[in-house]
Structure formats: C-alpha cells, structure tokens
Amino acid sequence: VVNSGSISEQSWKASLSVIEGIVSKHGKSPDSSIRIIATESLRRPFNADKFIAAVKSSFGLEVELLSGEEEALYAFRAGSEGRTDADAEVSVLDIGGGSTEIATGNKDGISYWKSLAIGAVNLTDKHLLHEIPMTDEIDSLQADITTHLAEVYYNSTEQVLVGVGGTITTLAALKLKAWDKVDGASLSLEETSVLVQILSRMNLNQRQQLDAMPLRRAEIILAGSMILLLSMKHLQMENIVVSTKGVRHGFLYTRWPDWSTRTNPG
User: Fold this and answer.
1) What contacts 24+ positions apart, CB below 8 Å, involve 140-145?
2) When you count CB atoms within 10 A of the terminal residue's CB, does the N or C end of the chain come out lower?
3) CA 221 from centroid of its chain's CA atoms
C-alpha cells in the first residue's frame, strides 16, 4: 500500500503469493487451521474489499480486518505476556508498516489505547524520497510524527515500556549484532538517538550491509526508528524493552488462551 490510498499491483501480487505459499505448505495438514488477519494496510485502501474478496475466491479463506483498538489490544497482550512484574502498569508500543499503536494496562487488561496512521512504510513513501534523506525530508518526517503523537495521552508515572514489531527488533539486533538475544533486550533513548543519526547518513546499500539488517527492512528502518525515538521522547521514557512477539501472538493468546503455554508459538 502506498500513499495513493490503494493497494498497488505489486503489493497485491506479493501478498497473494505469500498466502499461496502458506496454503501450499500448511493447508493440507489435518492439524492446520489458517487464519488471516489484516491491520492498517487494509483499513485505509479504497480497494481493500476487492483484495479480501480475491483472497476468498482464490483460497477459500476469510480475511479478518482488525480495528485499531483490536490491533492495540493484541499488541499489548503479546508485549506484556509472561512479564514477571504482572501487577505493574505496562505500555506497549507497536510500530508497524502502516500504523503505530500504543496501549497501557496491566494483567487485568488495557486502560488506554491509541492507533495512529503512521508507520515505517507509509512515512518512508511520503517523506524519504532520497536514499540519504535531505534535511527538509527529515524535518517533514519529524513534524508528521510529532503531530500524530500529540494525540497520545501519556502518564509519566513509573511504567515499563515494551516495544514490538520489526523496527525495534531490528534496532536491538543492530545494537547486539545478533538476533539470538533480542527478546528481552533493552534500548535506551540515547542509543536509539545514535542509531537514528547513523542510519540517516547511510544510503540503502550501506544499511543493507549492516550486521543483522534484513534486506527489506533496510528500506524502511529510518522512518520506523524515528517513530520510536520521538515516541520515547513523547512518553518520557528513557528505556524500552524489546519483545519479539507481535499482533499475531496476541491474537492467538486472546482467541486461544492455552496457546501462551506452548514453548514455541511461532
């Protein structure tokens, strides 16, 4: 999806190809139950209904389109799952491709949530027109994020901030130069700021050459990183804990509670 408001032909074909691969691999297993959930990438486009219909006609599968509230709830459930300080207030920040969600709560559920239509993909498409962004591109990116974050209420009391999604896991992997210790790691505000500065001076090839950088993530990592940095500043948080779980895990934990007891939910 690009900022034209529609699903591009390239994204359409790529998404159907991914679904086809999953169905080919798992669809014939008697133990398989495939669920497709969609987030902001299908909440915005005017041709989303046609894509959902195409999935149904091609594979016989329904696409469940999550609301912003549901996405925030599932992100919170994933990010807060298994925390030892279960009675404490936890805020979970989920930076996706088309939206960013923040939810605050404790073991009894969420008390606050907000979904913002800013993500690593749509902000890259909108603002970062050069591989090494111009100063005015960085300025417009920051201004856009700041405007959206102004809608977010924050509580400056002691809370734990947890981050989920590809942006924060990639930044943690860049810091550690490995992926095996990412879950449960932390990033400080200063470390995040330094990473943003470094990434903003690199072209695409240089970002792709970084240890632990996924090739496709390199295209959108700067915009996602800026969302993280400005979110931490807005929430007045000096550190964020990294979780490798995400919305799909929260969906499973919520719909099938015993799933959280499995050793490797995938």
Assistant:
1) 141/223, 141/226, 142/226, 142/230, 144/118, 145/118, 145/226, 145/227, 145/230, 145/231
2) C
3) 11
Q: Is the pLDDT of residue 192 over 80?
A: yes
What does the chain come to in residues?
266
Number of H helices and E strands in the chain, helices first, is 11, 8
Dump pLDDT digits (tens) for 29-53. 555 688 899 988 888 888 999 999 9
- Concatenate the DSSP letters of all residues of 50-71 into one string: HHHHHHHHHHS--EEE--HHHH
List the one residue out of 113, 130, 22, 3 whose CA is nearest residue 68.
Answer: 113
CA nearest 245: which of 79, 70, 106?
Answer: 79
d(CA 43, CA 55): 16
d(Cα 240, Cα 163) in Å, to the nearest integer?
Answer: 6
With tokens 């999604």, the residue in question is 165
With contact defined as beta carbons under 8 Å apart, do 187 and 172 qualify? yes
Tokens 């491709």 belong to residue? 97
Distance of CA 88 to the CA centre of its chain: 23
CA distance 260 to 256: 8
